[in-house]
Write a sequence for this structure.
């Protein structure tokens, strides 16, 4: 089963939107030191339920994109296509994170797929079940 592990909020002015979520919801916002402008959003304390995400410039049609973990990006992309979905961007490597692609379901809702790199962490339940 693939689990949602990250969200992205798309914005015309991501820096001001990052400030909004910091002020309105108390999120911790940090600028990512990566190849694109990106703000990391920590939405709660470690060990509590929920997911963290990011805020980025709007390059896609919808305002929020959820990213789902997969053990094999290539296999999952083939399943998405076979089920009637489409791949809109990628797969691409995100340095220090893993392989990523943006897809859409048959009704046009976008979502991300992430195959973590060897130094990235898998979701805790999957990491525990893979080690047994």
């Amino acid at each position: 089963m693939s689990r949602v592990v990250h969200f992205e909020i798309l914005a015309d002015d991501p820096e001001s939107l990052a400030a909004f979520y910091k002020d309105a919801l108390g999120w911790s916002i940090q600028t990512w030191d990566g190849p694109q402008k990106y703000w990391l959003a920590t939405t709660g304390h470690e060990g509590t339920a929920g997911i963290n995400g990011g805020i980025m410039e709007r390059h896609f049609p919808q305002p929020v994109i959820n990213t789902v973990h997969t053990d094999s990006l290539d296999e999952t992309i083939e399943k998405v296509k076979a089920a009637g979905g489409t791949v809109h961007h990628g797969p691409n490597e995100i340095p220090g994170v893993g392989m990523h692609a943006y897809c859409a379901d048959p009704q046009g809702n976008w979502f991300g797929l992430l195959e973590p790199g060897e130094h990235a962490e898998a979701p805790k339940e999957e990491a525990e079940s893979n080690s047994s």
